[in-house]
Amino acid sequence: MAAARVPVIVGPTAIGKTAVALALAEHLPIEVVSADSRQIYQRLDIGTAKPTRRERQRVPHHGVDIAEPGERYSAGRFALESREWLADIRARGRLPVLVGGTGFYVRAVAEGLFLQPPMEAERRQALERFTGTLTVSELVRWAARLDPGFAGGGRQRAGRAVEVALLSGYPLTWWQRAARADAGIDPWYVVLTAPRAVLHQRIAARSGEMVRRGLIEEVASVLAEGHLPDAPGLDGVGVREAIEYLHGKRPRDSVADAVTIATRQYAKRQQTWFRHQLPGRVWTLDATRPPEHLAEEIAAAWGRSLGAAAGPAVSPSRSTPAS
């Protein structure tokens, strides 16, 4: 049975993904599956820029507030749990929309969960010693010979291809195809982008607003529950800078600026990931426009991608993504 097509709205932090998803609910009967590795943690609402309770009442969100700050949560667990959310949403006649900025979470759902094959530790170490004696070009040639689907890369990627092929008996691309065949959805990608200056301005504004709304006090309250400063839920951008202040490592008036700088760096990594790691055809939208306009355009294109049976008509779009 073919995987169901699902809209996937991605982009860097502060680009406006939540606002677009909320606006999209005015056109389509959606529920959001949040692909955000920070928003899973409870009681860290300000520090993870979660949609508000009112927004979540307006549009149901799945994958928010599901783990304690001290609990470790993986992309693999997200892939498994998101399948249940997706199936439940569809069973109720609603349209799930995957929204987020955590690339590994998006990949785990959209491309299937790639489980590393079992490999003996001693043989792996011996192989690492051998490949360490090869030049990069020699290693790449070995990778291409052992894995016909090897798409190229540097030492690390080639070494991984050689390792998996020799120690598991199957090429890495075989394992990856098996994971994709087990994917829960057929992703319909929409990437939100904006010029660097615009994104930086949004990041700075949001960082200052987080501190004004009580970021530091929120983090102090979670620490007071007994969670360690390096707990899984407390190592994200924003929360980390608040902890530095609470531990006397920076003045209070530097927190917002520190969050801004760290968020800019994180957003750059996200943009690089989405630019190079999303498979197939991707539709890019200029997020400097109002979220209502973007939502209308997405809804119209979604309807065209499914044909006449997609649902109620909306006004024509100015641009046409791949269907």
Main beta-sheet annotation: 6 strands, parallel
- N-end to C-end Cα span: 20 Å
CATH superfamily of the largest domain: P-loop containing nucleotide triphosphate hydrolases
How are strands sequenced across the largest beta sheet?
3-2-4-1-5-6
Counting helices, strands and paired strands, the structural category is alpha/beta
List the helices and strands and how they pair.
Blueprint: E1 4-10, H1 17-24, E2 30-35, H2 53-58, E3 61-62, H3 75-91, E4 95-100, H4 103-110, H5 121-131, H6 136-146, H7 155-168, H8 172-181, E5 185-193, H9 196-213, H10 215-224, H11 239-246, H12 255-277, E6 283-286, H13 291-306
Helix pairs in contact: 1-13, 3-4, 6-7, 9-12, 10-11
Task: Give a verbal description of the structure.
37% of the residues are buried. Helix 3 crosses helix 4. 50% of the residues lie in helices and 11% in strands. By secondary structure, it is α/β, with parallel strands linked by helices. It is globular and about 55 Å long. The protein is built from 13 helices and six strands. The protein has two domains: 239 residues, P-loop containing nucleotide triphosphate hydrolases (Rossmann fold), CATH 3.40.50; 58 residues, no CATH class. A six-stranded parallel sheet has the order 3-2-4-1-5-6, with helices on both faces.
Which structural traits does this protein have?
323 residues, alpha/beta, Rossmann fold, 6-stranded parallel sheet, 13 helices, 11% strand, globular, disordered C terminus
